[in-house]
TrEMBL record:
Protein name in the entry: Alpha/beta hydrolase
SUPFAM superfamilies attached to this UniProt entry: alpha/beta-Hydrolases (SSF53474)
Organism: Bradyrhizobium iriomotense
Keyword terms, alphabetized: Hydrolase
Entry-linked Gene3D superfamilies: alpha/beta hydrolase
Span of domain AB hydrolase-1: 145-187
GO molecular function: hydrolase activity
Length: 285
């Protein structure tokens, strides 16, 4: 009887501790408003999302956080991809969602016949935003790996991501696009690519953007053709759409041998602090 009571108390304590840890290690979202003085004090707002236990380990200089840069689509806000943000953050990434477009920006105009139908100015602006955000975040989150980025982007943001990988291949490890339409995929095999394609008659992919099946198989590009609409590839989509994308992203990362195990996280040569020391390092604790 006493043994049974002891087991019950132990299980109850474990359940209580599990709930405590689940809340403690929840994903932490922080909005950071930056200003680029070299571009007329242009506002570059980012949302940084990190799993709380990984954030504490990085603050204690135990690990380097892998970094995801997320770029939104045209007319969609940077905060409208929470399902993807949480998917990557839950696996131990620091996710940086950048607001590229401002209300004061000139509207995007399609110019058929020009390179990327005249979108080059938006792509260059997005790349400047990414590089600027990285330099600023190095001061706030110094123990993150900014040299092997994972780029995630929807529509125009997917084109920004692919164009960044084209111009800065040494900084990019993976690219995940959701129906980018203009910039051709990088096909050197050095950058791992996962791309979701919509089935939307209003959003047609330009010729030459998605490689043929033979090229994809040869260089390891994964193309996922869906029945979804273009704008459903964001928080605006149904739970079914988001669950499908989340599952495919997990499979993609699993195939690359990446998970959130501490054994697979880049570690720094610092002694491990105690849990209490980690908790004390987090603001608000």
């Amino acid at each position: 009887m006493k043994r049974g009571i002891a087991v019950f108390v132990s299980v109850a304590a474990l359940v209580g501790f599990t709930y405590f840890v689940a809340g403690k290690w929840a994903i932490h979202h922080t909005t950071v408003a930056l200003s680029d003085i070299l571009r007329g004090d242009r506002n570059v707002t980012v949302e940084v999302s990190i799993r709380r236990d990984r954030e504490m380990e990085a603050m204690a200089e135990m690990i380097e956080l892998p970094v995801v840069i997320l770029s939104h689509g045209n007319t969609v806000k940077h905060t409208e991809y929470s399902f993807l943000t949480n998917t990557f953050a839950a696996r131990g990434y620091m996710v940086v969602s950048i607001q590229h477009d401002l209300d004061t920006d000139d509207p995007m105009v399609t110019k058929v016949g020009e390179e990327y139908v005249g979108r080059r100015i938006q792509y260059n602006r997005g790349i400047f935003n990414i590089l600027f955000a990285i330099e600023q975040l190095k001061q706030l989150y110094p123990n993150a790996d900014y040299k092997h980025l994972t780029l995630v982007g929807h529509s125009n943001g997917g084109d920004i991501s692919m164009y960044f990988a084209k111009l800065h291949p040494d900084m990019v490890k993976k690219v995940v696009t959701l129906d980018n339409l203009r910039v051709p995929f990088v096909t050197d095999g050095k950058v791992k690519i996962l791309s979701f394609r919509s089935k939307d008659p209003q959003f047609k992919t330009d010729p030459g953007v998605v490689p043929d099946d033979e090229t994809c198989a040869r260089v390891g590009i994964q193309v996922v053709k869906t029945e979804f609409q273009h704008n459903e590839l964001s928080d605006r989509g149904s739970d079914r759409v988001k669950s499908f994308i989340e599952g495919a992203v997990h499979d993609f990362l699993n195939d690359l041998g990446e998970d959130d195990s501490p054994l697979n996280m880049p570690r720094l040569s610092k002694p491990h602090p105690t849990i209490d020391q980690l908790a004390a390092a987090v603001p608000g604790n």
